[in-house]
Amino acid sequence: MYCPLVHAVLKTSEKMRNEPEKVPNPSVMLVDNPAGDELPPRCSLSPPPQSPPHPSPPPLPSPPPLPSPPPRPSRPPHPSPPPHPSPPPVPQARPPIPNQGGEQGDYGLVYERRAHPDIDIDHLTHSAVLPKMQEAMVFVNALRHASLDDAVSKLDDDALHRLRNPPQERLSIDSPGTKYSIETYLALEHSSQVAYQSVCDAAKRNFAGAPSVEDILSFYSVEKLIANYTGIQTVEHDMCPDTCLAYTGPFAALEECPLCGISRWNQEKLCASHGRIKVAACKFTTILLGPQIQGLYRDPQSAREMQYLYERTQQVLEQVRQTGEIPVVDNVTMGWDYVGAVLDGDIKPDDIVLMVSMDGAQLYDSKASDCWMYIWIVLNLSPDKRYRKAHVLPGGFIPGPNKPKNVDSFLFVGMHHLAALQREGLRIWDASRNINLRSDLYLLFTTADGPGLVYWDGMNLLNLTTSPSQRQLDIRKTQTGITKPPLILGLDPTRSLGVPLCMTTDIMHLAGNLSDLFLSLWHGTMDCAATDDINTWGWAVFRDVDTWTAHGQSVAEAGCSLPGSYDRKPRNIAEKLNTSYKTWEFQLYLFGLGPALLYNILPLQYWSNYCKLKGLPICYAQWTMECTIGNLGQEIRQPSQPYANLSQEGVRRCQVNALLSAIPTLATPPKGLPEGAVDLRDGFALLRKRDKNHVLPVDGPARAIQRFLGAHRPLPKIKRWARLLIPNGQIARTAWREKLKAREDIRASRNIKFTLDGRIHFAEVQYFTCLAIGEDHLRFINVAVLQLYSMPDEELLRLSMQTYATCTLLDELLVIDVKQIIGVIVMVPQTTRLPGGEIEDRFFLVERPGLELSDLGVAYSVYQDIEEDGDNMLE
Questions:
Q1: pLDDT digit string (tens) for 242-252?
Q2: One Pfam family name from the record (predicted)?
Q3: Alpha carbon 56 to its chain's center
Q4: Quick one: how far is CA 345 from the chain centroid?
Q5: Given 2.20.25, 3.90.1570, 2.30.30, 3.90.105, which CATH number is that of 678-854?
Q6: DSSP 496
Q7: No. of helices (H) and no. of strands (E), the chain
Q8: Which of 55, 320, 700, 815 is deepest in the core (most CB within 10 A)?
Q9: What is the pLDDT of residues 602-631, one digit of tens each?
Q10: Tell me, what's the pLDDT at 454?
Q11: How far, CA to CA in Å, does 396 sit from each of 79, 242, 542, 578, 644?
Q12: What's the 3-state SS for 129-154?
């Protein structure tokens, strides 16, 4: 029987409002096709036919050479020439993924993809009237015919040869002196060149005469060696000193900026040479994507990690074949647009699937220091890897401090390289299978913050390009929100979701924007029509200063109940709202604390409406872009040249990441568990503090342990443990230790959710311990002694659309296996009036937004909360 209460407990507070139900797709049919009859057009069986598994002989044989590309033509002037002929594709081989449901590869799926709009680029080009529209279409058409041999690529013969013929052997370092140099360079990542040189000089002095000590390299030499090992290529192009535009595409031959009139050239050098020496006054850097992707395959383990997307896709397709529906969406592999591209053969087993993200940043708070950058996210990697610093691929940097007036001219270089690789294919040596393969690059999503989305988006383009005057263009831009034809129109339509399907919304900034809108409504400060009387706004509850002040204090007090794994706790919103309240604080407030703290403050009809607000999907949020800006920005060491230094750090990051992908043993090994911890396997571990001596349990815990063991077993002495590491990276703590401290001095982590008889329950952990169970053959089991919470109030769950789960702490104690624990939750104490009128002391549930959906790991260390309380009875 379906029980709404149990159903509610099965959801997290974020997942309650965010997770879609499984909905069969009416356009998907299961087809019996025993005779192998041809399927209807635009449909195919998935996966495509596979080659037999490639054997793994020891040692690996030399791979077959790549086919030689055609002779390279002389460099033409920019813009690009007709397409460069692609060499024949290299045969691919991939071990098949076992099909659990029938004959290998025969999914029997017929699927009709969402229709792409019919965009006639040639017609758009000819219809463009204003110079701005014409310039945009020049960039689009240049991408349509992009080639690696174009002048815009700026690749010399060696770089082109390496890109088309990647190294076909694993990277190794034979000299101990060279390896010491590289490991020292990596260890001193955030230090100066002087620090590196001092360490190396000390090693030479103290180990003089040791083997290979003379091979220790200078800072310049070790950077040059790493660049040579990885093959990471950067290109620089001239730009306007005022950041108006880059001298690419239709601007390539200009000698002064058409927007501001400033000369392209360094005037001091130009005047000193009487006009003979022309050196660009300013340049910007693009880091080419191809070599970075090739580096991800140079070690067997790294190459195997790149197979995640293919393997996960096969699992999803098998589930679709069996059930006719896609499971609950928790990854890009579960979107119908992606699945349709796979079924139609646009995305093949060895193809690289990408997401590009662009954003601006202010490097210093105290002065104008804006700059822009974009990154590539490789979706072939699993979610717990693709967003990590080591796997995010910087794409390019646009110096500031002024905002660029023609962003396409800067993005053009990186997108041109992508378009060229889509036309020609990227050659890769896969170390895990010891084969050469051709991979086609598929652009799935384009992301940016709200203002930046206009540089990717483009719909109703004919209406825009045919604007007869600037005034009409401005009117149509205001009406549509679209400013120009998007650059990605020039990409191969079979290598991208295309316009508008690849367009995304700005999810991360949405949390802050929504909070601003709601708070302005609740304060009655939102602009409104003259005929609208704010005094009639029943929802403007925070016009009363005392109510707003008390609410802010409630937010601050609730923050004390949030564990360290929930990151920054929200501050008093009444006091800190106008002083850099963070996006994460807004998200916790709006989607975590708000439904509970605004109950009985907002009138019921408005509160219920607010509870319907959906949570934030995470698959294309800007968190990764913001993190990249932050960790690159903190490495800037020369404030006088912040933009050049930022570009250098980005290049260095790419080279180091490529090196660690090729030689994973150079990476700093994981720190592992703290001293005294006990690894319980499957991601669980007991962490100290722990009783130094065995103690006999008493009172409620003693009775619960006795019930768990059975009445016929004597009550054993135990050692209590204070903390438990669980697989999602969170650390559950215990009331035994946390209740020794004042509430405001801790980040409470003792509340957990766990499974019992197929249902989800909530509880407060008293402590962890180990018990011996069994009759004839004793075995030890690690358990948690819990005090249970009640099931949530059903009426409040119904009224709040299952976003407000409020419980009472029961006197009932229970013992469970620690591996039944799912995660750490927040239970915030609250005195509340129930719908029936009763006033009770209860606890409301909050879960970390996105924890179940993202699997990004938790930025929280097992070393972070080790107690130092001087208790001699503990160890």
A1: 999 999 999 99
A2: Transposase_21
A3: 34
A4: 26
A5: 2.30.30
A6: B
A7: 29, 22
A8: 320
A9: 999 999 999 998 765 544 454 555 565 556
A10: 52
A11: 21, 18, 45, 33, 12
A12: CCHHHHHHHHHHHHHHCCCCCCHHHC
In this prediction, residue 625 carries a pLDDT of: 54
Q: Which two tokens stand for residue 306?
A: 């790149």
Asked whether 502 and 489 are in contact (CB, 8 A), the reply is no
Least confident of 93-102, 111-120, 263-272, 701-710: 93-102
What pLDDT, on a 0 to 100 scale, did the predictor assign at position 233? 87
Cα gap 573→597, rounded to integer Å: 12
Q: Which of 312, 317, 333 is nearest to 109 (CA)?
A: 317
Contacts of 687 (CB under 8 A, 6+ apart): 673, 674, 676, 677, 721, 722, 723, 724, 725, 731, 862
* Full-model pTM: 0.73
Token duo for residue 580: 């850099």
Q: Where are the beta strands (DSSP E) in 638-778?
A: 678-681, 684-690, 721-725, 731-732, 751-756, 759-773
Domain layout of the chain by residue ranges: 240-281, 678-854
Length of the chain: 875
- CB-based burial of residue 301 (10 Å sphere; 0-12 exposed, 13-18 middle, 19+ buried)? exposed
The dihedral formed by the CA atoms of 319, 324, 328 and 329, expressed in degrees to the nearest 10: 90
DSSP-based helix, strand, coil % in the chain, nearest 5: 35, 15, 45
Of the candidate ranges 235-249, 339-353, 577-591, the one whose mean pLDDT is the lowest: 577-591
- The label of the residue with tokens 């403050």 reads 601
Residue 862, pLDDT above cutoff 80? no
Q: Among 122, 128, 126, which residue's Cα sits nearest to residue 464?
A: 128
Neighbours of 846 (CB within 10 A): 25
- Give tens-digit pLDDT for 103-119: 333 456 777 777 777 77
432 close to 350: Cβ distance less than 8 angstroms: no
Rounded-to-integer distance, Cα 501 and Cα 337, Å: 8
| Three-state SS at 45 | coil
